[in-house]
TrEMBL record:
<feature type="transmembrane region" description="Helical">
    <location>
        <begin position="7"/>
        <end position="28"/>
    </location>
</feature>
<dbReference type="Pfam" id="PF14416">
    <property type="entry name" value="PMR5N"/>
</dbReference>
<keyword id="KW-0812">Transmembrane</keyword>
<dbReference type="GO" id="GO:0016413">
    <property type="term" value="F:O-acetyltransferase activity"/>
</dbReference>
<dbReference type="InterPro" id="IPR026057">
    <property type="entry name" value="TBL_C"/>
</dbReference>
<dbReference type="Pfam" id="PF13839">
    <property type="entry name" value="PC-Esterase"/>
</dbReference>
<keyword id="KW-0735">Signal-anchor</keyword>
<feature type="domain" description="Trichome birefringence-like N-terminal">
    <location>
        <begin position="65"/>
        <end position="118"/>
    </location>
</feature>
<dbReference type="InterPro" id="IPR025846">
    <property type="entry name" value="TBL_N"/>
</dbReference>
<keyword id="KW-0472">Membrane</keyword>
<protein>
    <submittedName>
        <fullName>PC-Esterase domain-containing protein/PMR5N domain-containing protein</fullName>
    </submittedName>
</protein>
<dbReference type="GO" id="GO:0016020">
    <property type="term" value="C:membrane"/>
</dbReference>
<comment type="similarity">
    <text>Belongs to the PC-esterase family. TBL subfamily.</text>
</comment>
<dbReference type="GO" id="GO:0005794">
    <property type="term" value="C:Golgi apparatus"/>
</dbReference>
<dbReference type="InterPro" id="IPR029962">
    <property type="entry name" value="TBL"/>
</dbReference>
<feature type="domain" description="Trichome birefringence-like C-terminal">
    <location>
        <begin position="119"/>
        <end position="401"/>
    </location>
</feature>
<keyword id="KW-1133">Transmembrane helix</keyword>
């Protein structure tokens, strides 16, 4: 591992924290699910025999060859945020930092500007046009759930009440836009492959056991989905070693994390090869979402966390939490696959955003922090998850740009 001793020691602290949040969140989601399920019995989707073409102008596409992941954050309090905490009824408490007491809102006012081209302006109607009669699914851990929620918030404002529904079928959350027969979905699979952490309500915090060669059970729920967006990183990074099985389900062994991650990726790649039809389905892979646990990384000599950070990092910056060995592994594997998969390499642009995490304005064990906990940001601050509106909106603007890029009007 490239990580130093201090990082090995600190990672578990942060991870126990997010895992507990993850579990309680899902328990709560599950409790609510009965009620929202009734609400979600929305009747048969309307017929959409004729797909309506959507108008894509040259401005909607970025220039071929432009690397949209290289650029800078520009102050833009005119166009951003793209929605507000109040305007999106689907935001969960974990991400509504302002409502939870965060005093500054600058983190909502930055626009990502690629160096050599422009990203198209996010247009929810165009996205719904693309998603007409289709499913978009986000698969991964709680960071990925944040991206799912961001996407729901980005599109939901153009859909009238009564024509949109959010409901839960653990381990999934599903948002439906009835008039478009479109769905945006989230599937909890923190390791992508199977593990003892997959149960929506009952999984252990400290014990983890990953089945590196098993994915079929998850895969059943992913079959036939039109747009799949995968992500898996932080759950692997608990210790330098991880307990896993490979080959025989009874033979539990400790694997070095990069080795285990590689085997899991290969299992996933095999699933992709035998289940994806590249003519009708598109697959995206999110690169790792960075953490900002130690302020000495961007402010040498300091001892804090991402708490009380109000501005992005301006200088070139790459945190030690973002493992380059795993990054390279993902890059190589995707290159070798005969099916085109788009890597959304959002790590660098998110690395700059030390200001955008939930810190003490999120949840711990399913509850907002107490006054005492808030006074101890070093222990209780969350520098892994992101406030919404915020950085995950930019990931979705980029995903949207790629969907437009590839979209062929169908008459
Ligand atoms: C937007 O930012 C500019 C420059 O910092 C500031 O002068 C202006 O008051 C801000 N506008 C709003 C609506 O916050
Ligand atoms: C609605 O969308 C689903 C895919 O999400 C598709 O299988 C189904 O055929 C669509 N229904 C209609 C009536 O278009
Ligand atoms: C949770 O899982 C463990 C082991 O998988 C099992 O023994 C236990 O009965 C489960 N608890 C509940 C409440 O389902
Ligand atoms: C693997 O599991 C064993 C038995 O439960 C445990 O003692 C060991 O600490 C685990 N290793 C890791 C890296 O978690
Ligand atoms: C937050 O930062 C400001 C200036 O950067 C400083 O004056 C203040 O004491 C800090 N607050 C805490 C609680 O660290
Ligand atoms: C993703 O971007 C980073 C920073 O620009 C770069 O170092 C890395 O190699 C890229 N990853 C892949 C797989 O291309
Ligand atoms: C993959 O994408 C590239 C560039 O978009 C294209 O040239 C190539 O034909 C695609 N390959 C397959 C197998 O679809």
């Amino acid at each position: 591992m490239l990580l130093d001793r201090r990082i090995h020691f600190l990672f578990p602290v942060a991870l126990v924290f997010i895992l507990v949040v993850g579990i309680v969140r899902i328990v709560l989601d599950d409790l609510k699910s009965n009620k929202s399920f009734i609400f979600g019995s929305y009747g048969k989707p309307e017929e959409h025999k004729n797909r309506k073409p959507i108008f894509i102008s040259p401005k909607d596409r970025f220039e071929e060859g432009c690397n949209v992941f290289e650029g800078q954050w520009m102050w833009d309090n005119v166009s951003y945020p793209l929605y507000t905490e109040e305007s999106c009824p689907y935001l969960v408490k974990q991400t509504t930092c302002l409502r939870n007491g965060r005093p500054d809102s600058f983190y909502q006012n930055w626009r990502w500007q690629p160096n050599t081209c422009k990203l198209p302006r996010f247009d929810p109607l165009k996205l719904l046009g693309i998603l007409r009669g289709k499913r978009l699914m986000f698969i991964g851990d709680s960071v990925q759930r944040g991206q799912f929620e961001s996407m729901v918030c980005l599109v939901q404002s153009v859909i009238p009440d009564g024509k949109k529904y959010l409901y839960r079928v653990p381990p999934m959350k599903i948002f439906k836009a009835e008039e478009y027969n479109a769905s945006i979905e989230y599937y909890w699979a923190p390791f992508m492959v199977e593990s003892i952490s997959d149960h929506a309500t009952n999984h252990t915090v400290h014990k983890r056991l990953v089945n590196l060669d098993s994915i079929a059970k998850h895969g059943k729920s992913w079959e036939g989905v039109d747009y799949l967006v995968f992500e898996s990183y932080i759950w692997w990074m608990y210790k330098p070693l991880i307990n896993a099985t490979y080959g025989s389900p009874d033979n539990i062994q400790e694997f070095k994390v990069p080795a285990a991650y590689k085997l899991a990726l290969e299992t996933w790649a095999n699933w992709i090869k035998s289940n994806i039809n590249p003519h009708t389905q598109k697959v995206f892979f999110m690169s790792m979402s960075p953490t900002h646990l130690w302020s000495w990384e961007w402010k040498p000599g300091s001892e804090g966390t991402c708490f009380n950070e109000s501005y992005p990092i301006q200088d070139p910056y790459w945190g030690t939490g973002s493992n380059l060995e795993i990054m390279a592994m993902v890059g190589n594997l995707l290159q070798e696959l005969e099916i085109n998969i788009t890597l959304l390499n959002i790590t660098q642009l998110s690395e700059y955003r030390k200001d955008a995490h939930t810190t003490i304005y999120g949840e711990r064990k399913g509850k907002l922090l107490t006054k005492e906990q808030k006074s101890d940001p070093k222990t209780f601050g969350d520098c892994i998850h992101w406030c919404l509106p915020g950085v995950p909106d930019t990931w979705n603007e980029i995903l949207y740009a790629y969907l437009l890029q590839k979209y062929q009007n169908y008459f």
